[in-house]
Amino acid sequence: MPKTMFTRPADVADIEFYLNGKKHRVSDKFPATTTLNDYIREFAGLPGTKVMCKEAGCGCCAVTVTHALDGEAVETMSINSCVCPLYSVDGWQITTVEGIGSQKDGLHPIQKRLVEHNGTQCGYCSPGFVMSMYGLLHQQPKPTMSEIEGSLDGHICRCTGYRSILDAMKSFGVDSPSGGCIDIEDLNKNLCPKTGEPCQPHSDSKHCITKKASDSTNGDVKGTAPAALDLDLRESRWYRPLTLKDLGKILQQHKTHSIKMMFGNTASGIFKYEGPFEVYIDLRSVKELHVFKDNKTSLVFGAGTTLGKFRKRLIEYGEKPGFHYFPRVVRHLNVLASVLVRNAGSMAGNLMIKHTHPWFPSDLFTMLEAIGAKVDIFNSKDGKVTKHTLMEFLRNVDMKLKAITAIEVPSWSSRDHFRSFKITPRWQNAHAYINAAFKIPVDKRKIVGRPNIVVGGVSGEMVHASKTEAFLENKTLNDEVVNAALKTMFEEIQPEALEVGGSPQYRRQLSVNLLYKTLLEVYQPMKFSLQSGALSMERPLSSGLQTYQQKSDKLPVGQGMPKKTAPLQVTGEAVYTNDMTTFKDELQASFVLTTIAKGKIDKIDTSEALKIPGVIGFIGADDISPDGLNNSIPINYPLLPYKDELFVSENIDYAGKPVGLVLAETQALAEEGARAVKVTYKDVEKPIIDLKDAVERKSFHEGCSETKQRGDVEAGFKEAAYVVEGECEMGTQYHFYIE
Questions:
Q1: Which fold has domain 414-537?
Q2: Where does the signal sequence lie (predicted)?
């Protein structure tokens, strides 16, 4: 275990924070990888905050937090608790869904309105939606319906459908027919003088009664600078330095150890199995990383600036001279990750993902490189800070024992034209197939100098379309030049094949298309039919309308009414399987799954898994008794008249088939153990991926469906005046389960 550089009194609590108004003290007994979600659910006994993906992707884990990142301004916002390290919340105030309302004490207006709009079905996602809305109303007491809809981009719902949920939340909008929220100045007029909580009898569905967490009766969450932390944890050390000088000392002391530096730790949602690390450094409280400077010809953002704060600052400066391109950057930032992630994740953290994983299609890097931004980098060896272009940072700077301290964004000439794109599988909260950003300096139709054309998602090597940039340098745009530029771009773009994402052919043509849209906007062709090609589609506010007749003689049958369990779901009081209390000596389990689709099991090696402290054992096909039934399908189930082994004994017929279960003392240990099991295969065959493969290889499920034919199809074709032939193909879809 790394040796400590600081000493602390033994009788001082390691960290402390408030959870729903109650002080919690946490010692150094937890691993560094313990998340706020782990603590809330497993140790604080508040299962209303849900857990599923552990990737900051589904939103069911959302909580609202109040803290002072820079030691000055106290802020309240919602974040993903599943990626928030427990030891980073020292001094915070945290509110979960149980902390704002219950059936006993009364529902919060947000909870109440979700019930009234029939916004729950299974209800597993409901607490997360509630807490995101709660955080938004603290940040922005009078949001518009569009702002509300955008703030829920980090949430998924698998069964209710979004419309009723969005209708409930949008009813708080100032432009909503339902009335919206009351002024934040009037909130204290509606607080109970005894408890300080919202007075429920007056909290009807026409008002949003909220209270800032920083106004709570406990006064511990203030804008004062936090103390340095040095925690001796299980198999690692946790630091919270306050200055760059302190950070430099820590890095130099541990230069032979594996180190993880973090702000919001949101990158762990993408790279969840990296590590373990010997040293963890929380950079949130390093004061030099929270600067903001207006140098007139540029703006300087501290490395710890969250993506959310960056966006707000660009909105503030968007109408000032030299920063006319900011609104388009903001438009792109709106689809970078989600509000929950942007509230926690930092600019430097996003750039470091790109540095560590060059293939990653970082939207922030793509835009900043096109803009011409620069980064300041701190070297712990000599304490110096040096400035670099982003390409130098990406290609030439070894970031070992170094840290980004600031990002400088330049002002532009009025002739500089900016455009960026992000093409994704879904509108929000998704990685790009291709992203691109363009800086075109243009005087009328003449490009003045060399443009910047930056494309992400092509390969780990490509950043600039350099040949296309060189071709367009100082060119006067016309149809001939544009067509030649597109041809150059097509020849230059050579996408790598990816396991997930669009095909190389698709991503290649897509890159060319984005250049075409940009050039159409810049030079505005005379042909009216081409001008619309420059436009971007604007996503309108979602809406829906349903009409149906009620028969009075059948009431209450057919009458819309909130269901009885809805209040339990929106308050987090509904108990789901993984919310149930753990019994004494109860073990947790995690499946070991096949990584191939067709073949046979050769060997299963559990030795490394069983070495992990807390991993108890492994159960596979050989552990099922001879008189047992290794079949996951009920007997005589008519639609599935075949055997589907619970655990693979030999033959594998689909990817992700269960090989066995690892049993451990905790769920985290079970999952770690499952990843450590080594399965080798033999007789591996080419998998059947789609319907065409199945038809070619005559792989059909017999007896699962019945074909009925009426009339003579061939005769019908012969007698028809016209025959139209073709194919209709429905693409595949990746399901992101939440239940």
A1: Enolase-like; domain 1 (3.30.390)
A2: none
